[in-house]
Amino acid sequence: MANPKILEQKQLVIDEIKDKVENSNSVVLFDYRGLTDAEIKELKIALREVDSEYKVYKNTLISRALNDLNIDIEEYLNGPNAVAFSKDQIAPIKVLANFMKKHKAITLKVGLVDKEVTSEDKLQELATIPSRDGLLTMLAGGMLAIPKDLAICLDLYAKKLEENN
After folding, report:
1. Residues 123 and 148 in one domain
2. 83 and 62 in contact (C-beta within 8 Å)?
3. What is the pLDDT of residues 102-158, one digit of tens each?
């Protein structure tokens, strides 16, 4: 029989994982094998800059926590895994995708975006979406284009009327 103190410590970690998953809009599971300590530190800093968190847990503890939440990603829980948690749906995915371009050792496995299991292909697709600020800029540009075009048309029409008089 396992030591009750060890079981209690494991349960605390399981509860921590469950809490992080429930309070995150994006959870990304990735393989970090082959990264040096300096590269891991670089990744942690990059994730921290977008208000994301990097953690490494035992696969069995991740599995138990996700089973309690009725999330099934058992097939991805092999080998060493790290997890990125964030309130932002896209930010950690973009950071990891950009990091993968420079460091071939890292590979995305699976994610939970808004509590839905998301495949590696879908994560790669989400990584290409512009940032929230970029999307807002595009929206503002699109909204400003209509009045600008209207103003140009009205100005040209007014000039044409002046020429005819």
Report:
1. no
2. yes
3. 888 888 889 888 888 888 888 888 888 777 778 888 888 888 888 888 888 888 888
Domain containing 165: what range?
A: 130-165
Q: CA dist 127 to 30, 92, 122, Å?
A: 14, 9, 9
Q: Kindly give, in sequence order, each residue whose CB lies less than 8 Å from that of residue 73, ignoring residues fewer than 6 positions away.
A: 29, 66, 110, 112, 117
Counting the structural domains of the chain, the total is: 2
Beta carbons of 77 and 59 less than 8 angstroms apart: yes
Amino acid type, 114: D
100 & 113 share domain = yes
**Same domain for 162 and 140:** yes
